[in-house]
Amino acid sequence: MEPQIGTAPPSPSTGIGAGKRWGRRAQAVASFVITIFLTFLGLLAITFFIGRVIPIDPVLAVVGDRASKAVYDAARLSMGLDQPLYVQFVQYVGNVLSGNFGMSVSTGRPVIADISRFFPATLEMATIGILIGVALGVPLGVIAASRQGSWLDQIIRVVGLLGYSVPAFWLGLVGLALFYARLRWVGGPGRLDIFYDGLVPPVTGLLLVDSLIAGDLDIFWNAINHLLLPAAVLGFFSLAYIARMTRSFMLDQLSQEFVTTARVKGVPERVVIWRHAFNPIRVPLITVIALSYAALLEGSVMIETVFSWPGIGNYLTTALLNADMNAVLGATLVIGAVFIFINKVSDVLYRVLDPRAR
Q1: What whole-number distance in Å separates Cα of residue 99 and Cα of residue 113?
Q2: pLDDT for 31-40, tens place per residue?
Q3: Does residue 27 sit in helix, strand or coil?
Q4: What are the ABC transmembrane type-1 domain coordinates in residue numbering (predicted)?
Q5: Cα gap 343→341, rounded to integer Å
Q6: With respect to CATH, is domain 111-357 assigned 1.10.3720.10?
Q7: How far apart are CA 132 and CA 234, in angstroms?
Q8: Helix (H) and strand (E) counts for the chain?
Q9: CB–CB of 308/227 below 8 Å?
Q10: What is the pTM of this model?
Q11: What residues does each domain of the chain span?
Q12: What average pLDDT does range 84-101 have in this prediction?
């Protein structure tokens, strides 16, 4: 078949260039997967050896301190603790990769089942908290930087200082005493009122989502009523950090020459602030927000305790008090995996927003 007149045959260099691009992408994906695997393997090693170093006997947690030596030895043998340490680690990695975190002494259920039950509650509260922190912290940081030295800047800085200095449990107790016990604006401790508990079939574990799936708006609004105060307390602490970092980034950008040039040319101040100065700080802000979100997911133990919130932090605290090492290691591993995931997502967003990093 003869080629049509006016059409040029494909250049061999074009195919070679496309092949090189696909090769680079495949290499980047392979590097990404290997990095995640090695990081996760390191996390497994850390959690395993910490579990062996902690002066808590997992056998006694199972059989009790009044068990006979024969019962103790039999339980130790069945748990594989008589094996060399490297054999135990290989078995531990294999069990974790197959989704087997062992049985929880505290609840009598598989640890993975407990985590799938308790972690969504923490995820729901931390997600609402970070949304509050971002929605308020970023604008406040921008306003403080654009009006540096004014009374508004001073107030925002004081709010940020309070977010760093006020204890979380104290703020939670004050919030309960004021907004729940006195004003009755929000719901009390727990995720729901007691008479709504168990009425929504769990699908995702996220109560707001599951209540909408079930079409039960009464439970949805009741869940929001209970979620609002603990999420607002968490959001206050993330707001303080995000506002402080946003202000710092914006002050650096507002001192740049291109901002001065835009102002000299008569560009409106709103455009100078939000387009010329704010756009370059989006990339570092992603890292700040990601770290703040991860901190809320793993650092909400005090808030969950104050509000009797059935989350992973409360579960981890109970497991520590009961010397339930399977639950402790499983919850720690999940929290660490969430940190890895959030960091990798922030790296991907970093490359999407900044072409220079690709």
Answers
A1: 10
A2: 777 877 888 7
A3: helix
A4: 119-350
A5: 5
A6: yes
A7: 9
A8: 15, 0
A9: no
A10: 0.81
A11: 13-97, 111-357
A12: 83
